[in-house]
Structures are given as structure tokens and as C-alpha cells.
Amino acid sequence: MANTQPNKHESIELIKDLIGDIETAMLTTHAGERLVSRPMQTQDIEFDGDLWFLTEKDTEKYLEILANPEVNVAYVGKSYVSVSGTAQPIEDLEKKKKLWNKAYEKMLNTTYDDPNVILLKIDTHSAEYWETGNTTKAVKSFLKNIVGNESADNGSSDMNDTVDLDNPAR
Fold this sequence. Notes:
The protein is α+β, with helices and mostly antiparallel strands. The chain contains five helices and seven strands, in the order αβββαββααβαβ.
């Protein structure tokens, strides 16, 4: 039986295409017994399987990540993408300088070399996506549902899939 799952490189390229133009993501962390989401500016950096954000150490988000680094990052644009991964605070002055811009200076009221500013690296594990921006796929999926022709693909949809970003290459 042929394997139709994309390899790691194909999965990364797919997710890169889906989130490439989305400026703001929602980062979800564990806050004890509940989940908390907040908007984060996506870094203008080539997606290679890791996501990067800037934040401050004196925030609840930072403390929540130290207590439980498993996070979810959700993107909404022409498609919906939900990425699960492990967050890791990173101290890298040169990378902070590279990612810094005037918007951060105004938003955080500080500079990139402030020791309170920290990088968050999200080591991604998997991503689920709903490709709503593709009209052809949407019409095809809609028609399959109307005529009840879901058995041909075991109920899966060209519009929704989960890709493994951990698996090296299948």
C-alpha cells in the first residue's frame, strides 16, 4: 500500500505556504488547570519547522511555559492552521537584534538588548490545517458531501489534514 503522507520537508513546505502571510498567531499555554491564548506577532523568518516569537520574562506566559512547555500556535488567514510544539526560552542577543523592529520597541517600550526580552522558540511536532482559501478544493469537498461519496477516501477531506513535523522522512 502506497504511503500518501508527505515527508518532513514536504510537510514543512506546506505549513510554510499556509502561514507565510499571517502576521499574528494565537499562542496557547497551560495555566495550571486551564488553557490561555494570547496574540503573538509571527517573526518574519523562514519557517524551517521552528516558530520564533519575542516576549518578556516578566509575563504570565513566560512563567506558564517554564512550568509546562507544551504549547499550541493557531493561525487564521486564508486557511486555519493549528501547530503543536514545545516552547523553549532562548537567550540570543544577535538573534533578538535580527528579529527586532520599531513596532516591538513601541509595543514593549524597551530595546532588543533589554535582559527582560526573551526569544521563544517553538519546536513544532505536528500541524493540523483546514485549507479554506482553495475554492476548487472547497467545491470538490462540498460536492462529495452532497452526493455522499465520502467512502472513496474513508471520510477524509482534501481540505483538512494533519502533518507530522517530527518525523524525519518517510
